[in-house]
Amino acid sequence: MKAEVHVDISCAFPTTLRSPDDIVLAEELGYARAWLYDTPQQSPDVWMCLALAAARTSRIGLGPGVLVPSLRHPMVNAAAAASLEALAPGRVAVGFGTGFSGRRAMGYPGLPMRFMADYVRAFRGLLAGETVEWEGARMRMMHPEGHAAPRPVHVPVLFGVHGPRGGAVAKELGDGLLLSLEPLPEFTTDFTWSAMLAWGTVLGDDEATGSSHARAAAGPGWALAYHAAYEFGGLDAVRELDGGDVWADVVEAVDPDERHFQVHDQHCVALNDADAAAWEAGAHSRLKEWTVTGTRTEVRERVERLRDQGITEFVLQPSGDDVRGELERFKEATDGL
Predict the structure, then answer these.
(1) Within this chain, do residues 21 and 157 fall inside the same structural domain, yes or no?
(2) 32 with 173, same domain?
(3) CATH code where residue 67 lies
(4) Residues 216, 162: one domain?
(5) Within this chain, do residues 66 and 149 fall inside the same structural domain, yes or no?
(6) Residue 218: inside a domain, yes or no?
(7) Going by C-beta distance under 8 Å and a sequence separation of 6 or more, which residues neighbour residue 143?
(8) Does 172 share its domain with 52?
(9) Smaller CB count within 10 Å for the chain: N or C?
(10) Does 36 share its domain with 123?
(11) 110: which DSSP letter?
(12) Helix axes 19-29, 46-56, angle to 10 degrees
């Protein structure tokens, strides 16, 4: 008999001043974990908002998903993680990624995998109470009692990676994956914790993909298809997508040195000018394909398929003004999975 497979239902939010309120709501509704993005170009500090949420919750898991290593010294992130663990014992996990969009929105390329591996080794070594070397200097956490969680501090580390090199680093240094792209990598099932960050919404039975609700609630996730295609393949790759020509025309009209401002404007929050042009051109017809959007039954079946492919934690990022409604409808659709 095949063993029953369970999937945790979690949520994620672009970090805002209301994020602690959103996380309190998510705990109330029974979500397993809440992740906040590390996007300083458009957000308040992720650790500050997580600490505020920790003080107002008692059960829900918390973590930055994902940290961009180049934004802070490893000691700074280790100290922050140890502080959050002291505030929310046993509830903290940390994700790391190469910087989409925490770097690319500032005009930098993604980080090399070697740098991320070295960084996470230092981060984990510091939390373990070890002396590590970074930038030619030897250092260790020296927090006296009461200044952070006592060392060693075990905080699970998930990696936002997709390719084979990233998979190898995750196997060596990580406790799991925090994925956001399909198809899933072959190594997804090699981990006991494989989370999937996704966007989407539960539609009414007769609701069209071009509705104002669908646009506000799932549009920001749908737009990521263009953002990612541009960052990893350039304008030519975008033009191969439905609506890609009108999207690319808007971006191409901007000075090349400042196109990242246009591409990442409203990233994961709303539609920017290029996104809106593609939406109005009818590319919202791809909404169910590019996001986890559909009727209650369709959403449930999509999450079930991901579970059967090795996803152990499904992470929804709700968008739009009705966060409560989005979280309630999605939780109802996936109840009991």
Answers:
(1) yes
(2) yes
(3) 3.20.20.30
(4) no
(5) yes
(6) yes
(7) 79, 82, 151
(8) yes
(9) N
(10) yes
(11) P
(12) 40
- Size (the chain), residues: 337
User: Beta strand 313-317 with 8-13: parallel, antiparallel or unpaired?
Assistant: parallel
Distance linking the first and last C-alpha atoms of the chain: 18
Rg (CA), the chain: 20
Would the pTM count as exceeding 0.90?
yes
Query: Tens place of pLDDT for every residue, the chain, 337 residues?
Result: 345 679 999 999 999 999 999 999 999 999 999 999 999 999 999 999 999 999 999 999 999 999 999 999 999 999 999 999 999 999 999 999 998 878 999 999 999 999 999 999 999 999 999 999 999 999 999 999 999 999 999 999 999 999 999 999 999 999 999 999 899 999 999 999 999 999 999 999 999 999 999 999 999 999 999 999 999 999 999 999 999 999 999 999 999 999 999 999 999 999 999 999 999 999 999 999 999 999 999 999 999 999 999 999 999 999 999 999 999 999 999 999 9
- Asked if 69 and 180 sit in the same domain, the reply is yes
The H or E element spanning position 80 is helix 74-87
Question: For residue 307, is it within any domain?
Answer: no
* b (16+ CB within 10 A) / e for 182-210: eebbebbeebebbbbbbbbbbbeeeeebe
Domain that holds residue 245: 212-288
Exposure letters 90-107 (e unless 16+ CB within 10 A, then b): ebbbbbbbbbbbbbbbbe
Instruction: Specify the number of domains making up the chain.
Output: 2
Say yes or no: 83 and 133 in one domain: yes
- Name the amino acid, one letter, at 129: G
Structure tokens at 293: 């959007």
Q: Own/partner pairs for 257-265, CB < 8 Å, 24+ apart? A: 257/107, 260/104, 260/105, 260/106, 260/107, 263/105, 263/226, 263/227, 263/230, 263/231, 264/41, 264/42, 264/101, 264/104, 264/105, 264/227
Pairing state between β 94-96 and 157-159: parallel
